[in-house]
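tool_call: predict_structure(chain=1)
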Amino acid sequence: MKVMTATEVARNLSAVLDQAEHGETISITRGGRRIAMLAPASRTNGADLIAFFAEHEPLEGFGDDVESARGTLTDGVSAEWDDD
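tool_result:
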């Protein structure tokens, strides 16, 4: 794990992000104390979500709840994805 000061990270942000993108975890310090960790984002393609739903049956009424929530959020608002 790489350790950098906040100032070093600020001055080299693009390079630091490149390092994280390539798997490096960076501990960021200020005044000699660790204040944050920068780590690579997890990479998923939805396979875990598909596997979860393949193994777990949705609760009865789940689809109705989703439609109800969707209606509440989009009530009176037209969205591109609407089938109407």
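agent: The chain has a mean pLDDT of 86. Proceeding to next step.
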